[in-house]
Amino acid sequence: MSVLFTPLKIGALEIKNRFVHSGTYECMADENGFVTDQLLTRYRNLSHGEIALIIPGYLNVHPLGRATPHQTCIDSDDKIPGLARLVDAIHEGGARACLQLAHAGRQTRKAYIGQTPMAPSSVGRDPMYLVKPRAMTEAEIYEAIEAYGKAAGRAVRAGADAIHISAGAGYLPNQFLSPYLNQRKDQWGGSNENRFRFVREIVDAARLQMPNGMPLIMKLNAVDYTPREGVTPDLARQYAKWLSEMGVDALEITTGTTVYSNMHMWRGEVPVPEFIRPLPLWQKPLAWLVLKGMVGKFDFEEMWNLKYARYIKPVLGNTKLGLVGGNRRVAQMEKLIESGDADAIFMCRPFIREPFLVKMIKEGKTKQAACISCNRCVGALVNDLPLRCYVNGLPPKKGRRLKVEGRRLKIEG
Ligand SMILES: Cc1cc2nc3c(=O)[nH]c(=O)nc-3n(C[C@H](O)[C@H](O)[C@H](O)COP(=O)(O)O)c2cc1C
């Protein structure tokens, strides 16, 4: 039997094989962040595909931490019944459910949260949302920590088997960990220990709400790729060591931030037309130039985070390591687990295209994921369309469009 189908123990939880569905934003919640039938259908379907552990999209823990209008939220108790249905849907076909807690910090827009987004420090203006955040007060920092704790409690009450906290991808914990995005001079910044304090506090707050043995998994950036140096592999190694010493059960190593460097998170094609489509007319020419300049610079690389995983793994002690990013060929995945460089295979885009990929691998029907990393799925989300594989293109935009017909401009729709 392939090593990929041997069980893995994370904390006190045993999962049936090495495949994990990594956090994948679906754009399927209603405007108030409640779980919808569309979301349940997606996870019910995935649950029958032999994936051992399923992490749905990032759940927002605080109203000011909301990243998008159709993000699922875990920021109030009235969300628990819907989240319980989500967990049930994942359990239906025999998968285990892990809920991911997140706070956008600066990676959101005033339009989504009703005020200027907040961050550890008011530095930089990101190229995606053009946001210059305001610095959080101490009271707001404690409120955010409390929000993580309460959200963990809600995840437990919803029946989750594990909890995941994203301290990567540029979200609020990542912002605290970064020497660039966090330039505070108080107890929350200025040294590695101080920059780590926020993450330490949210892990402690979550643990207080979790039963003994329930796994806590975290996503950690090995490199941020921000305009000035943020988290680096050396820093990530230090943070990973501290997380392991704190008893975090597994780490998922990634790279890139959503608003400064998202193509590092999902290497492959730059979906230029899809990214430009939702922008106001005045932004389109400049955005087109910038995006065109990015084409070819983020080509897909199989297992592109492996070098960082190898660097970090020796300090991890009993903490398991999950590799995410470009896991595509079954033979390479087997080698990865056999070599001990990682314990679990985390995948995102392959499951968007093939929800039954693991079942097909198990039955010997495929040796490679069909996903071509065209990133139109990401382009669809940017256009507020629900998640699915859009390899054949996005549906036409509703509403009035300008079309050139011969020498005449025509308004359609
Ligand atoms: C459409 C899409 C949505 C994503 N949403 C999340 C998310 O909600 N939480 C998260 O931690 N990562 C998210 N990611 C990042 C993935 O979990 C993963 O790290 C990345 O796509 C690289 O893995 P892959 O090559 O298997 O796609 C998302 C990626 C994509 C493409």
Account of the 3D structure:
By secondary structure, this protein is an alpha/beta fold. It has a single domain (3-412), classed as TIM Barrel (Alpha-Beta Barrel). Helix content is 33%, strand content 15%. The chain has 14 helices and 15 strands. The chain has an 8-stranded parallel β-barrel with strand order 3-4-6-9-10-11-12-13, surrounded by 6 helices. The protein is globular, with a radius of gyration of 21 Å. 51% of the residues are buried. The model has no long low-confidence stretch (mean pLDDT 96). Residues 22-25, 57-58, 100, 166, 169, 219, 254, 265-266, 324-327, 347-350, 377-378, 381 line the site of flavin mononucleotide (FMN).
Look at the helices and sheets and give the structural class: alpha/beta
Largest sheet: 8 strands, parallel, barrel
Low-confidence stretches: none
H/E element string?
EEEHEEHEHEEHEHHEHEHHHEHEHHHEE
- Proportion of residues in β-strands: 15-25%
Number of domains: 1
Number of helices: 14
Main β-sheet, spatial strand arrangement? 3-4-6-9-10-11-12-13
Q: What's the CATH C level? A: Alpha Beta
Ions and ligands: flavin mononucleotide
List keywords for this structure.
413 residues, alpha/beta, TIM Barrel, 15 strands, binds flavin mononucleotide
